[in-house]
Input
Amino acid sequence: MESELTPQQQKDLTSIIKTMKAFLKMEYAGVPRKRNFHPKMHGCIRGTLSVFSDLPESLKVGLFKQPATYDVWVRLSNAPPKVGADTGRSGRGLAIKVLHVTGELLEEQDPLGIPTQNFLLTTSPILSASSIRLYRKAMGAVLGGVFPRILFALNPMHWRSLFLTLKYSAKHDNLLAENYFSGAAFRMGPEHYAKFVLKSDQPEMAYSLTKTRSSGFLREQLKMDLKDKDYTFTLHVQLHQNDRQHPLNDTSRVWKGPLIPVAKLSLPKQVFDTPERRAFGESLEFSPWMGLVDHEPVGEINLARRAVYRELAAFRKEV
Output
């Protein structure tokens, strides 16, 4: 896989970051800046990730090298760049920060000051911008206002991306019932590539509050569910077998193939909706490049994310 951007890709990436910073500067004039995407946090949840003991030898790499249980922080969110109601069709995010991991780290240092492995997952199995060039055009449309969106939508070259975005946007009733996907690919040691899939162990859960859904009902539901019970997810890997079925550089393609369970994510009952926990959740930084060399992100979109996440995190702290 390519490890460096071409001059044209770098030019597009510079434009992407400029567009994102301009949006944040306008959207949060005079107030603390939120994330460019996933700004609406439903909750910052403490939990554990337990690596299974019976993994195939080929998967005993990096975080999964041996059975272990790690403390984690989990951040649940809405994907759109503007904070809005939970009732509409959208993507949802679940980011996991695994604490005190061991092994050789990538270049990104976690501001927490400890070695971590980050998993950034959403309810969409793909990232619809399959190239940095399309990423630039999509950001200009999403963040640039009505006229840029119209121009983007009228171009037939963008119709597949629009279709995929709409296809995988959905209404969600309960964040603990959803499945979450890495979208892009990552190394699984020196010999394999994989995508990560987090599957709910309680997919039958739904909206159960005895009132009409409010604009923030996903947090309200999460608060009620975690007040009295524990919940779990199973983390899986989906291995790359060939470039035709499992393209490494095209994040807009859904991979087909078996899911191999590798770890259990446990969220114990807790009270998380406090001022202190909300402030902590907002302060956390996530990046696919915060982690182990054995799980290095691959593909041009992941290369772009390295710079985007770093620069936007620093930009949020300027005010």
Observations:
- The two ends are 38 Å apart (CA to CA).
